[in-house]
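@channel sequence for tomorrow's demo:
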Amino acid sequence: MDITQQFFNILTRSGFQVEQMVNRSIQNHLNKPAFVKLASQRANGMAKGMSSLQNTVEMLSVPFNFPTKNDLANTTNLIVQSEEKIDNLEYQMISLTNAIHDLQTNIRSANQTQRDNR
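structure tokens (generated this afternoon):
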């Protein structure tokens, strides 16, 4: 076995062992009510901070003229609505084209019938 293969085998085993240690540590912390309570409090604080940051970004986006997440979402919705309208127009045009074709066929048929009756 060459040195590179040995290195990767050792690295794989070490990575697996570290992963198991981290998983055990996480499980041990998750089983402690104090840790869960602390994580919940921190999560609430982070959520408030994120909301504040989002509002600040929204306010700064106007003078600096850069799009926000909401701007992109609104643009995406407009694109989807436009695509739906274009599809509807395409369907209507196909229907009108078919109706015109049928009308032309009926007119030709009527003209042929009149010629035949003369």
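heads up for whoever presents: The radius of gyration is 34 Å.
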